Amino acid sequence: MNLKSKKISLVILGATAILCSRALFFFFNDTEGPNLLIVGGLAMAIYFLSVAAYVFVPSKITGLKKLSVVVCVQILSVIGLYFCMK
Which residues contact 65 (CB under 8 A, 6 or more apart)? Predict the structure, then answer.
């Protein structure tokens, strides 16, 4: 997979941010279900956190390794938020 294009990486980060946000609210025991606005707002916050991590990852890590590090940052931040909110 050629990740030389920055747009592809940012689209993948956006999709994983939406999935992580939705997964976080799936695990809460809410009878009404998650609000779309709240899921979207958390997805944007996770996305901006991951873009910041993507920019500040050392330059010697490139390509798929860089993307996987940032996706792990997303997942770990959602896990941390889950335990803080629970």
Answer: none
8 A C-beta contact, residue 57 and residue 45 = no
User: What is d(CA 41, CA 71) in angstroms, rounded to the nearest whole number?
Assistant: 18
Distance in angstroms (rounded) separating the CA atoms of residues 33 and 7? 32
55 closest CA partner among 11, 16, 21, 10: 10
In this prediction the pTM is 0.86
Distance of CA 48 to the CA centre of its chain: 8
Number of other residues whose CB lies within 10 A of the CB of residue 37: 8
d(CA 8, CA 21): 20
Tens digits of residue pLDDT in 34-66: 888 999 999 999 999 999 999 898 878 888 888
